[in-house]
Amino acid sequence: MGFEDKRIAIIGGGLGGMSFLNAALYAGLKNIQLYEQAPQFAEVGAGVNITSNANRVLDAFGLQESMTRKSSRKLPCYMEYHNYKNGEYLGHIEEFSQPPARLLHRAHLLDSLKERVPESCLNLGKHLASIERNTDAGAAPYTLKFQDGSTTEADIVIGCDGIKSNVRRDMGLADSPNYSGQVVYRGFVDYKDLPEETAQLLRKTVNFRGPQRHVLILPIGNQETGTDRAAIIGFMSETLDSWDSESWMSRSEISSLHEHVRDWCPQVQDIIEGLRKGSPDGRMLKQALYVRDPLDKWYEMKSGQKDSGIILLGDSAHSTLPHQGQGTCMAIESGIALATILRHWKNDDLESAFQFYQNLRKPRTDRVTQTSFEAGKLASSDSPDEMNNTFNPDALSERMKWIMEYNVLEDLRAKGADVLDFHDSRL
Ligand SMILES: Cc1cc2nc3c(=O)[nH]c(=O)nc-3n(C[C@H](O)[C@H](O)[C@H](O)COP(=O)(O)OP(=O)(O)OC[C@H]3O[C@@H](n4cnc5c(N)ncnc54)[C@H](O)[C@@H]3O)c2cc1C
C-alpha cells in the first residue's frame, strides 16, 4: 500500500528539498520530481554544521564517505568559547555522539545530496507561481503553474520552498515571519590570510561571546582536498530601520561588521583583516534573521480525495533561529520521516499518514524552535563583565543533548510499528 506510485512534486531544491528527494529515493517512492526556481543549484552563505542526529540519516543514504571527504577533520570538540574582549578561553562543549558533527561548505553538502539523484528528477528554472486544485472528474488533483508558463500535474505536493514559502501562502496561511532583533554577517576566511596563531585557534569551532552579539567560526573543508577555510558568522543586534525588509539580505561593507567589534580581541581583528583580504569589493553577506511561530497544521487535503494533499517540510513548516545549528538538520530528519511514512503507510488514507507524520515531528521541531531562541540569548551575554562567572558550557551542552542523541530512524521503527508496513523497508 502506501503512496509509492503517486506523482509527488517537491517544490524547492535547497538543503531541505534535496534531503527529502534523497529520502524519497532511499524509501522507494517511484514517481517523484523536484522543481527549483533558480537556474542552477546554489546555497547562500558559506558553512553549515550537520550534527549527529542528521548525520545518522545521511549515513543511511550512503553519504558518509562523500561528506567526510569534504568536511573539516579531527575537530577536538563541538564548540570552544572565548571572551570577546581579551580572547580568554571560557570553556568548551565535547562532541555529543557518533557520528560526529560535520562542518562543510553549503555548496559541498548540496553536491553530496546530488550524487545519488538521477538528473531526470531535477527541474531547474521552475518558479512555482500557483497551485490549481482541479475539480473536473478525471483531472489530476493538482496543476502546478510555473512563472515561465509551463505546468505539471501532481497528486501530492511537498512545499520545501523555505521560510518565505509560496506553497505555504497558497495554502491560505497568511502569518508573517518575526524579526529576531539580530542580523548575521556571513563570509569566509582563508587560513593563509590569518596569522599562524589565530589560524591554529580557528581550526576549532570557536564562539567569541560578547555583549548581545557573538562571532562564530566554523572550520569548513580540509587541507587534503585544498578546501579548508573558516566560515565566519557574526550575530549582531541591530534595529531594522534602515533595512529593505522585503529582501532580508544584502551585500554589506565589512566595515559595518567591524563597527560592532572594533574593541574586541586581536583574534577578531585578524578575522576582519582576513575577510578583507578575501573580498575584492570589501563586502560580505548581511542577512536579517527571521523565524516563524510554530504552525498548528502542516498540511491540507484535496477535498473529495483521500489520497491527495499538500504538505510543508523544512523552513516552510518549522523554521528556527540558527543558534543550535538545526534548521537543515530538522529538515533532514523530517525528510526521512515523511518519505518512509508515504512509502510504507498501511492503507490509502493520506490524511492519517500526514497527521501521523506531524504528530511524530512537531513536538520535536517546536521544541527546537523554542530552545534555539533561548540558546541565542545564552550565546551572547547581557552583562559582559560578569560573563566569565555566569557562563557554564556544561549546562549549554546538557541543554542540547536531547537534540543530538535522538535517532529518527529508531523513533520511526518504534512509533510506526502499528501503522507502517516494514516488510521491504531499508529502515
Ligand atoms: C546564519 C545561518 C546559519 C545556519 N547554520 C545552520 C547550521 O549550521 N546547521 C543547520 O542545520 N542549519 C543551519 N541554518 C538553517 C538552514 O540554513 C535552513 O534551515 C535550511 O537551509 C532550510 O532549508 P530549506 O530547504 O527548508 O529552505 P531554503 O534553504 O530556503 O531553500 C528553499 C529553496 O526553495 C526554492 N524556492 C523558493 N521559492 C520557490 C518557488 N516559488 N518555486 C520553486 N522554488 C522555490 C529556493 O530557491 C531554495 O532553493 C542556518 C541558517 C542561518 C540563517
Q: CATH class of the largest domain, anyone?
A: Alpha Beta
Number of domains: 2
SS summary, helix count: 14
- Write down the CATH topology of the largest domain: FAD/NAD(P)-binding domain
At the fourth CATH level, what is the homologous superfamily of the largest domain?
FAD/NAD(P)-binding domain
Distance between the termini: 17 Å
Short description, anyone?
It holds the Pfam family FAD_binding_3. GO terms for molecular function: FAD binding; oxidoreductase activity. With 427 residues, the chain is α/β, with parallel strands linked by helices.
What does this structure look like?
- The protein is of the alpha/beta class and 427 residues long.
- It folds into 2 domains: 8-72 and 100-176 and 293-416, 3-Layer(bba) Sandwich (FAD/NAD(P)-binding domain); 178-291, D-Amino Acid Oxidase, Chain A, domain 2 (2-Layer Sandwich).
- The chain contains 14 helices and 19 strands.
- The chain has helices at 15-27, 52-60, 64-70, 106-114, 166-170, 196-201, 254-261, 266-277, 315-318, 327-344, 350-379, 387-390, 393-404, 408-415, and strands at 8-11, 32-35, 47-50, 79-83, 89-93, 102-105, 122-123, 128-133, 142-146, 151-154, 156-159, 178-190, 206-210, 213-220, 229-237, 249-253, 283-291, 299-301, 309-312.
- A hairpin with an 8-residue loop joins strand 8 (128-133) and strand 9.
- Helix 1 (15-27) packs parallel to helix 4 and helix 2 crosses helix 10.
- The two termini are 17 Å apart.
- The mean pLDDT is 94.
- The site of flavin-adenine dinucleotide has 33 residues, from helix 1, strand 3, strand 12 and helix 10.
